[in-house]
Amino acid sequence: MGGNGAGGEVELGADLLVGQSQGGEAGDLPLLRRQRPAVADAGYRGAAGAQFPGSEVLPVSVPVPYTKADGTTGTEFHLGKDGQAAFAADLSKADFRILQATQRPFDADSFTYPTTAAAWRTIPVWGLVAGRDKAIPPACERWMYARPNAREVVEVPTSSHVVMLSHPGVVADLIHDAARAVG
Fold this sequence. Notes:
8 strands; 2 domains
C-alpha cells in the first residue's frame, strides 16, 4: 500500500510497474527509467480530490507533525483506530488492526503536490475500481482510468480501498492480464 511517494509501488521484473493508491501514482512519476506499462492509479491529487469529494479517510485519520527534509514542518496522517469502515470495511477487525498498525501514513501535501509529468500519457495503463472504496471515491477512480484511456478496467463492486487484501485473486488476474499484454 502506498504512501506519498514513499515506495507503495512494487516493480515486477523490468517491464511492469504495479501500484496502489498513493503508490499507484507511480504512473504520474517522470522517474521511470523505461517506458513501463502501469497497473496504477492515474493521479488523485488536487483538482481530482475537489472534483470528486466523498473520501471518508481524513476524518478517521490522526494528524502527526513531522520535520521535512528541507526543515519545514509537514503533517502526515496515520489511519485511526476508528477507520475500518472508511478504509477496510471488507476485512475482519483483527486484519484491520494489523493494517492500522502497519499502514504507512500519507502526507497532507499529497492532496496539493503538483504533478509535473504523467507517465500514463505515454505508457499503457490497466486499472481496478473498488466499488465501495471510501478513501478514493469510485467515480474518481473511473475518471482516473478514463484519462489515460486504460486498456482494461476491472470493477469489484463489493471492495473497499484495500482490494489487494480483500480480493487478491482479482488483483492478481489484472496484473497477469497486463503482463501478458506487454509480453
